[in-house]
Structures are given as structure tokens and as C-alpha cells.
Amino acid sequence: MPSPSILLAFLLLALPAAAQEVVEDAIPRSLTGTPGDATRGRAIVADRQRGLCLLCHSGPFPEEPFQGNLAPSLAGAGSRWTEGQLRLRLVDGKRLNPDSIMPSYHRREGLHRVGPAFQGRTILTAAEIEDVLAFLMTLREEAAP
Amino acid sequence: MIHRALMLALLALPALAQERRSGFEDMAPQTQAMQRDDTSNPGMLWALEGEDLFRQPAGPAGQSCASCHAEGSMQGVAARYPAWDTARQAPIDLAGRIAQCRTDRQGAPPLARESQGLLALSAHVGQQSRGLPIAPPADPRLDAARVQGAALYAERRGQLDLSCAQCHDDHPGRRLAGSIIPQAHPTGYPLYRLEWQALGSLQRRLRGCMTGVRAEPFAYGAPEYIAIELFLMSRAAGLAVETPAVRP
């Protein structure tokens, strides 16, 4: 009979995995259990070293001159998808489209020749992903045609 | 042999299916003008330095490159590299060959990759193929490395998990932030890159793309780069050499 503290340790270890549980095309539960912060999320999305989103996407960022056009505009993302759907697309969109060029922001496995500075690390932390999600959910208006 | 050739042809297909264009075509008119005009092309400074070095004696026997290579004999050479090096039984790129002549034939101190001297000599030799079509040799001993290069080009790598092909075959002409993604034809190397404020080799460019996807780059001179170059040169066959080119 394992001691209660070992059981507790197991439960804690199992937590992140349970939090990432995929239901259909979504991860309904928050990765952290704490709501994200949309202002921080916006800063992450616009940051070319952290979120990298504007390398490929455009969006409602009038102050950002160089936005990519490899991917759909982020404008309106919060009305096209539920928070859970967006969570899966950020955590590991390749579960939905294995050929996608969009990086999996919260996946460590299955990568090849990762640079030493990035080994064993996800692109964004769970808290950063929740911040980005809080921001994406504020994007209700579609891009002007 | 036959199915190697077939495999190469198939691998090159996606690139050939679209009209091939040098990265030159995607540049702003001012940058194009800078490349076209030798008096404003900063790469010419390196090429001129290379011309001097070519004639400078080095090593114990006091021989220069020009002692062995007559005026004009370097024409077309850059268009057909990488080539097979019988001494090492491996493919060798142009910079590698220049460095090898320097140590093995002149007995002079080695020229490191990306050193000023090696870039200058590569620019000088490369310039003598300017305007000539890229013409990879039909040497079957290069096939294995070329196939390896094609595989490296198609392989996803780094924390961002992207392959060369995903950007350069699937999305050329699109914008990655402010940069137009070129088709990745190695037409102008070594070239002057505005971002570097210096001349740099193809291997430096490839390292940039690898670290960009947060992958561990190969060491300078690694056989993997030469394999990728072999593949890129066969994919670019027929396009004109632009050395020393200018890029943003």
C-alpha cells in the first residue's frame, strides 16, 4: 500500500496531462486553472521573440508594420472558435492538421535537432498560452476585406 | 543508379513546377540597382581583395594561386561546384577547394571558413562565373550526397518544427513578417547581405535559416551543408550565377 504522500505526488504529476485532455477538436480545460490576462497575451502575440505569431499571421496591430501572410488573419479568431478549440490549436494544432506549418506551442516530443537553448522547453509556458487565449477571445471582429 | 536519378527528378519536381526565380527578383528596386552596379555593390570590395590575394605568393615555395591557375581559367568553375574530391572521396564545395589548395598545394596557413581571406577568394573566383548558367556536374559519385541534401531539405527541424521545403517550396513569394520568402536558389554566394553588413557564404545563410527555426545548425564545413548545396544547385540548374550578389 503506497504511502499517502506518494499517492499525492502521483496525482500532482498527472495533473498537467489531465489538464490537456483533448475532447473532439478542443482542450476544454484551462492549462493552469487560472484565467489568462488579455493585455499580457496581446504583448506575447506581438512579440517576435516570444509568440512569433506575426511572423505568419496578420491581425489588429496597427502599430506593427511587418506582419506575415502565411496564415489567416487573427482578426475574428474569438468569434470563429471557442476557447477550447483555440487552446488545442495553440498547444498542438498538428493534432488537427499534421502538415500544418503552425508550430505546436506546448509540445516537447517528436522534435528533431532542437537548438541547445530550446531543448526540453515548450515555445510558450502554460500560463503564457492562457494569456494568449484570453487575448484571442477578445478578437471578435473579422478583418476588413 | 537509375532509381537514384529518378528519385532526384521527383524530389526536384515541386520546385520545377513553379517558375524558378532568383531571390534577386524579389528585392526592392534600390537593392537590385545596388547589385547591378559594380561601383555600388559592396561585395566588389571583397572580390577585389580576392583578386589581390589570388596573385599573392603564400607558403614556403612562394607560390600564388596564379602560379598554377592562368588568367581566365576560373571562368565557369563556381557554376559547377560542389564537385567530387578524389583525395577525400567526398563532395567538396568551392570554399573547401580553395582552402584545400591553400594548405595542400601552397603549404600556406589554413584559411578558416568565413574568414575574410576565404570569402574574398571565393568572391573573386565566383565572380568569374557571373552570368553563366548553374551547371551541376553529371558525376554519379555526387548522387548519394545530393539525395541526402534533398532529404535534409525536406526534414522538419528545430523547436518550430519547420522544414526548408515548407517555406521555400510551399510558400515562396509570401511574407514571413517583413521578408519575402525566396525560392532559395544559391545563385549569388558569397554575397553581401544588408542585414549582415558583410559578405557571407551560403553556409552562413543556411545556418541563419536553421537557427531561425530554433534548430541546432551544423558546424561550418559539415558534409550536411555540402549535401544541401548540391541539392540546391541541381534545383537551380540553368539560373545565372550572380556572385557577388546583394540581399536584404
Automatic annotation (TrEMBL), chain B:
Entry-linked Gene3D superfamilies: Cytochrome c-like domain (1.10.760.10)
EC code(s) of this entry: 2.8.5.2
Predominant subcellular localization, coarse grouping: periplasm
Catalytic activity field: S-sulfanyl-L-cysteinyl-[SoxY protein] + thiosulfate + 2 Fe(III)-[cytochrome c] = S-(2-sulfodisulfanyl)-L-cysteinyl-[SoxY protein] + 2 Fe(II)-[cytochrome c] + 2 H(+); L-cysteinyl-[SoxY protein] + thiosulfate + 2 Fe(III)-[cytochrome c] = S-sulfosulfanyl-L-cysteinyl-[SoxY protein] + 2 Fe(II)-[cytochrome c] + 2 H(+)
Top-level taxon: Bacteria
One Pfam family cited in the UniProt record for this chain: SoxA-TsdA_cyt-c
Signal peptide start and end residues: 1-17
Places the protein is found: Periplasm
Residue ranges of every copy of the Cytochrome c domain listed in the record: 45-158
Keyword Lipid metabolism: no
Keywords: Electron transport, Heme, Iron, Metal-binding, Periplasm, Signal, Transferase, Transport
Subunit structure: Heterodimer of SoxA and SoxX.
Family stated for the protein in its record: Belongs to the SoxA family.
Name of the protein in its database record: L-cysteine S-thiosulfotransferase subunit SoxA
Organism expressing this protein natively: Falsiroseomonas frigidaquae
